[in-house]
Amino acid sequence: MRPLRGGPIAVLVALSMAMLAVPASRPGGRAAAPEASAGSRLPSLHAAGAQREAFDPRALLDRRRGTMRRPAGPHEFYFTRAIYSSGWGWNRWAIDYPKSDRQFMTIVNRLISIDASEYENAIRLDDPDLRKYPFLYALEVGDIALGPAEIEGLRNYLLAGGFLVIDDFWGSWQWATFEQQIRRVFPEHPIVDIPLDHPIFNAVYRIDEILQVPAIGNFWGGRTWEQDGYKAHARGIFDEHGRLMVVINWNTDLGDAWEWAERPEYPLKFSTFAVEMGINFIVYAMSH
Amino acid sequence: MFEPIFEFLFKYRPLVFEQGDFAIRAPWTIALGAAAVAAALTLRTYAQVRGNSQPLDRGVLAAIRLGAIAVVAFCLLQPVVVLSSVVPQQNFLGVLVDDSRSMQIADRDETERLRFVEDRLRAGGDLRTALEERFALRFFGFSTETDRLGDVDELTYRGTRTHLGQALERAHEELTGVPLSGLVVVTDGADNADGGLGESLLPIQAAGIPVFTVGLGRETFDRDIQLSRVETPRRVLRGAALVVDAVVTHRGYRGETVTVQVEDEGRIVGSEEVELGRDGEPRTVRLRFTAAEEGPRLFTFRVSPRPGEMVTQNNVRDALMLVENHSEKVLYFEGEPRFEVKFLRRAVADDENLHVSILQRTAENKFMRLDVEDADDLVGGFPTTRADLYRYSGLVLGSIEANYFTPDQLRMIADFVNNRGGGLLMLGSQRSFSEGGYAGTPVADVLPVVLGEAEGEEDFFVEVAVEPTRAGATHAATQIAETEELSVDRWNELPPITIVNPITEVKPGATTLLTSASDDLVVLAFQRYGAGKSLAFPVQDSWMWQMHADIAVEDMTHETFWRRMLRWLVDGVPDQITAELPADRVEPGQAVTILATVGDANFEEINNSAVIASVTHPDGDFTDRRMEWTAEADGEYRATFIPPTEGFYEVRIEALSGDELIGEDVTWLQVAPSDAEYYDSTMRTALLDRVAEETGGRRYTPDTVASLPDDVQFVGGGVTVVEERDLWDMPVLLLLLGTLVLGEWGYRRFRGLA
């Protein structure tokens, strides 16, 4: 019953990364084609996998109306990334996509007994099928600019039972932007710090400290922070029943740690922490 | 109609001929000799006379003449009927009069049934006078008890039950030793005693005492509605959504629509309309309501009286239910992180009467415990002993393969249902049912569905729309809307869910409640198994009924479904100690049997426990009874007590092993006058006929009862005298003789012979 601690996790993560065949990719770059067998339990996934070989999220977004979701299939869990509107006109939702998602799912499938799709799954906030994926990940929300349909979609999603993990936005300026936008979704629910004794920090792994996980570029630059975000926070939004709906990882970049976990120069400490946090989020979201 | 004609022709009533023996008083040789001579002369005369007659004419005329001679000869024989007749004023006659409330029913020309007694059996009444001329009368009044009466004036007609057999026994015993001619029972025939009537009749038959029954009331009512039956559980969890069947019968209201209401101690909590069918045809009404208030609750089911009803008291029935406010424990064992866990937990989170502990495997031999009772609860994983598992009332198996369990644990799960009486629910997933390797295991025996081979079906995956079967449309567990119709509509509207377990067959005795709309897939099935029940719900993502875009955020269908499912899962699951009363309503002074079953933590019956029944009276007094092992069944204990007054009695059972308390249970008893007299309160001729026929008596109605004194005189026992009654002067003989003479004359005229 005792959760695996950092040491074994680090070894597992390292081993997993060594075995990964996922090539490194730049943010927004192309992902490698998934193996056909990965989606073989649902015929429609074959087609989806084949299409993904030539997948370019920007091109898809350029068509404006498209969604990059995959149909709900036999997998119990899909690491689902939110496609949201950005104020700067740049598709920041796709940062680290899809390598980070795939790499994280590969690790998740090896560490816990979960039937999770190994592939990315992105969906627009105003897509009715959003609610088929009760776990949602969004990052780089510092310039998020939600439209009315997105606000309604996200609010209904969360009130119905969906769970949102926010990641990778930094500093007071981006916080202000994000806070202003999320207030439009939940004007009635405050954002509060999640205490370390909250069950989400002990769902699978015990988290004793919120580390600041740097983007790989910043780490190479010798720092873990960006802008004025010197201290990492894990905040949340709870519903009227006290149930956690949104986890906000501010001044930290778990996604980069998942994405670059196979790189020897990226500190294992951060990758391990990011994986532990991510797995806790998933297991908590699936049970609370 | 038949009897008066018979009596006119034959001088006496049929009973005289039935009871008597035929004899002739005159020397039969002389009479027969004279008749033979007359016959011979007749034949000779007709043989010799020719005239213009034909042989046929002579034959007919001779036959007619011979017939006339035979009639005369019969009279000359001085025939008599010999019968035994009671000696006037030397015999006793027991008169038993129904003293129950049903005698107040005015169903004949708006006249109460008791009016017969008032008019004809009181001093001065014609029947009373006729009987008193022949017998010494002894009166008894009977209802719940039988009492000797000085006169019928003492009757009150307030008895709440009618124990006819007991009344006959009592009167027979009381009149033993006196010359008893018979017993007369004046009643409407209602007998609502628990015991059989046959045993009561045996000693009366053996003694040769005829019982004469006088039936009062009508055999059918012109216009009446009756709430014939209501079946409710004895105990339910607070907040339970109940579906209760009430049966309505009627006469005279065909095509009318009536409303059946259910009240929780005066507050209407449910109602349903029903259109009445043909006369006497029972119609079942399905009432839905919630047991919201805890404690012993008296639910009243009522059909509003309609104009012209003969009996309105039978429109109402009460049911005592113990609404319990404890938390039933359910263990949900899940083999992997699944959204079913999250949404099932959320669905039942607000249900204070369900405590769902979750054991979820997150990695190999790594578990997450949720909503456990204490720090040590389930710390070792899935229970390895029966005592640990049997603490739960319900067990839900999610995506957990059979190989996870040891053979003993699989046996234990089966025993959990079979012996402990728990509820087992298996959910759909790649690791359950056949796909989870359960085929051939003890758990497969318990499940309500047939598990086939999983080989070659790994890729089975189908999205299905769910629809209720006929049974599912009315079952309490699958009611997801306020009415049956709305519930069916709602099922048909729900978004599709997915299934990876291709189950198409249920076991004999199992019931399918939900099925796929387009395939033959089983979606929800259940069966009773041993002391418990098992459910199969091979759906892997019922949370879609919460999260699908077609479901409004505030929609409660998913929550309602799971609350009802889990409440149903644990409904009726026994505890270690269970208290039971064969009847939940008795009358003051009526003995009550208390039964208890006692088991240990493994639910093995204990026969040497110290079991105490503590009865709390309505006024706060206590009665303690030590319960004794019945020796009829393991773990079964029995005690009796007699509630002296009306009200609600709490019966608390405590069982001890040495000084250690094993457990306790509480049930309730309502003590009130019975209203059974008003149900099926028409005159029951079949019962009265049976009593009369089996004892050699007769049944009468107020219209035919005038012959009772005569009948008793000839049928009854006691001090009797042999009596001969002449038959030669029966009018039928004169009529026959005249007919023959006239016939001869007419024949002659017709044939031109005279």
SSE diagram, text form:
The complex is a heterodimer of chains A (288) and B (754).
Chain A: H1 6-19, H2 43-52, H3 57-62, E1 80-83, H4 99-111, E2 121-124, E3 135-139, H5 148-160, E4 163-169, H6 171-185, E5 191-193, H7 216-220, E6 233-238, E7 244-250, H8 254-259, H9 268-285
Parallel strand pairs in A: 1-2, 1-3, 3-4, 4-7
Antiparallel strand pairs in A: 5-6, 6-7
Helix pairs in contact in A: 1-4, 1-9
Chain B: H1 2-10, H2 14-19, E1 21-24, H3 28-48, H4 55-76, E2 79-86, E3 91-98, E4 106-108, E5 111-112, H5 114-121, H6 126-134, E6 135-142, E7 146-149, H7 164-174, E8 180-187, H8 197-207, E9 211-215, E10 224-231, E11 235-237, E12 240-251, E13 257-264, E14 267-275, E15 283-291, E16 295-303, E17 316-324, E18 328-334, H9 339-348, E19 354-363, E20 366-370, H10 386-389, E21 394-397, H11 407-418, E22 423-427, H12 442-446, E23 462-464, E24 466-468, H13 470-474, H14 484-493, E25 497-499, E26 511-516, E27 522-529, E28 532-537, H15 544-547, H16 557-570, E29 577-580, E30 585-586, E31 592-598, E32 610-616, E33 622-629, E34 636-641, E35 647-657, E36 660-671, H17 685-695, E37 699-700, H18 708-715, E38 720-726, H19 731-751
Parallel strand pairs in B: 3-6, 3-8, 8-9, 9-37, 11-17, 18-19, 18-21, 21-22, 22-28, 30-36
Antiparallel strand pairs in B: 1-2, 2-38, 4-5, 6-7, 10-12, 12-15, 13-14, 13-16, 16-17, 19-20, 23-25, 24-26, 26-27, 27-28, 29-31, 31-34, 32-33, 32-35, 33-34, 35-36
Helix pairs in contact in B: 3-4, 4-19, 7-8, 9-16
What is shown here, in short?
The complex is a heterodimer of chains A (288) and B (754). Chain A is α/β, with parallel strands linked by helices and 288 residues long.
Structural features, described:
With 288 residues, chain A is α/β, with parallel strands linked by helices. Chain A has nine helices and seven strands; from the N terminus they run αααβαββαβαβαββαα. Chain A has a seven-stranded mixed sheet with strand order 2-1-3-4-7-6-5. The longest helix of chain A is centred in the C-terminal third of the chain and has 18 residues, at 268-285. Chain A is globular, with a radius of gyration of 18 Å. In chain A, 52% of the residues are buried. With 754 residues, chain B is of the alpha/beta class. Chain B has 19 helices and 38 strands. In chain B, a hairpin with a 3-residue loop joins strand 6 (135-142) and strand 7. In chain B, helix 3 (28-48) packs antiparallel against helix 4, helix 4 (55-76) runs antiparallel to helix 19 and helix 9 packs across helix 16. Chain B is elongated, with a radius of gyration of 38 Å. The two termini of chain B are 41 Å apart. Chain A binds chain B through residues 1, 3-4, 40-42, 72-74, 76-77, 111-115, 128-132, 134, 156, 159-162, 203-204, 241, 243, 282-283, 285-288, and chain B through 335-339, 341-343, 345-346, 349, 358, 360-364, 366-370, 379, 399, 430, 458-459, 461, 498, 500, 540, 543-544, 546-549, 551, 553.
